[in-house]
Amino acid sequence: MMRLGLRNLLRSPARLLIVALLIGVPFFLLLVMQAIGQAAQQQTEVLKQNVNNTLQLRARGAMGHVNMVGNEDLLPQDALERVRQVEHVARVEPYLLAMTPTESTNFAMIVGVTPGDTKRLESHGEAGNPRILAGRDLTEADRGQQVAIVGQGFAKWAGIAPKDLDHATVTLDLQRTHPVIFALDRPPAALKIVGIYASGYVFGDMQLFLPIDTFREIYGVPAGISWLFVKADSAEHLPQLEQKLRALLGDVADIIAPTNAAEFQNTATRAVLRLTQAGAVLAAVLMVVVVFFVMLLVVRERAWEIGTFKALGASNRGILLGFLTEALALCAVGALLGTLLFRIWGGPLAQQAFGLGVAPFLPAQYKDTLIQALPLTADIGLATAGLLVLVDVVAALAGSAWGARQIVRLSPMEAIRHE
């Protein structure tokens, strides 16, 4: 009966193709939703590793921006070495910060970092390590060089497209002012833009990262640190490390324990997961509906055949086994087709699906930027493959349930008389 069920699958090639497409499209949708959800979870895990076990230090009572009105105080340079000597410190990353006017009353952040250090969103930890969209990241060879990478928002404001990276530059005019920015008596500096990144956060994409040595030269800051990010060797040691740092630098530094990964998880990640789960359920329901109508049609078409089997002594169990085998095989063909479509077009269409179906429900700061920062791929791991098999079986069984009921209730005499 199982072999018969598999052969029955090919009795109508045209119907097989149409039904496979009808089942394959929901499977494709399921894979897209799964990919978006997994990417959001991966982004959250990255943030937990780079943010939740990290303390931020800055000069007491100041933001530490070298040209911000009333907030230009910096941490002393020796704080860097003093912090490195503290127990449970795994990594120390110094930042230097400045602001530059853009349009109207808006501004962008200029951030000096050591190449290879984590690139964080100014005043928020969500950015983690932003994803490079075009060009390259800063490297050790860039130390002291007039190079920088910019967020996609900054690039758009500056009129820089990915194709322009071989000759794109940005000129920092330190004498321009703003309601919260004072001028510096320093010459303008031209920076070669070598990369464009996406942070996943609107304001995070309005930043420019350059080597910290280059920052010191341009802004005339031979010593001092705007922010110091201190990463603990484990999250468990973070409270103990915070106490030690307060005892060491409490008179000159404010110490902040970022919770931005949790905030990101509560806002963006949960919203994305809820919507992708809803999309996955919708896809599964569509599969069940397609299988329901197809198998119901099959039962009605083959009523005489079913009656004949019963008249010859075939059991309901055997006949049901054949029809369920056909339903499972039908779903499997649809799943393979959906997987093939996903491997070919999954990445681009997942971005469109995110923009149309997910982004409108996110907090405003993530609507237009998060998808670019997510590590979205068309790869299918073991967990996704297992989900496909499970959905295949559930859709086949649930969709065939009513048809199976009709088969059990059908008597040979009724089938033959009907025929």
UniProtKB/TrEMBL annotation:
<feature type="transmembrane region" description="Helical">
    <location>
        <begin position="319"/>
        <end position="345"/>
    </location>
</feature>
<dbReference type="Pfam" id="PF02687">
    <property type="entry name" value="FtsX"/>
</dbReference>
<comment type="similarity">
    <text>Belongs to the ABC-4 integral membrane protein family.</text>
</comment>
<dbReference type="GO" id="GO:0022857">
    <property type="term" value="F:transmembrane transporter activity"/>
</dbReference>
<keyword id="KW-0472">Membrane</keyword>
<protein>
    <recommendedName>
        <fullName>ABC transporter permease</fullName>
    </recommendedName>
</protein>
<feature type="domain" description="MacB-like periplasmic core">
    <location>
        <begin position="18"/>
        <end position="248"/>
    </location>
</feature>
<dbReference type="InterPro" id="IPR003838">
    <property type="entry name" value="ABC3_permease_C"/>
</dbReference>
<dbReference type="InterPro" id="IPR050250">
    <property type="entry name" value="Macrolide_Exporter_MacB"/>
</dbReference>
<dbReference type="InterPro" id="IPR025857">
    <property type="entry name" value="MacB_PCD"/>
</dbReference>
<keyword id="KW-1133">Transmembrane helix</keyword>
<feature type="transmembrane region" description="Helical">
    <location>
        <begin position="380"/>
        <end position="404"/>
    </location>
</feature>
<feature type="transmembrane region" description="Helical">
    <location>
        <begin position="278"/>
        <end position="299"/>
    </location>
</feature>
<feature type="domain" description="ABC3 transporter permease C-terminal">
    <location>
        <begin position="280"/>
        <end position="409"/>
    </location>
</feature>
<keyword id="KW-1003">Cell membrane</keyword>
<keyword id="KW-0812">Transmembrane</keyword>
<dbReference type="GO" id="GO:0005886">
    <property type="term" value="C:plasma membrane"/>
</dbReference>
<dbReference type="Pfam" id="PF12704">
    <property type="entry name" value="MacB_PCD"/>
</dbReference>
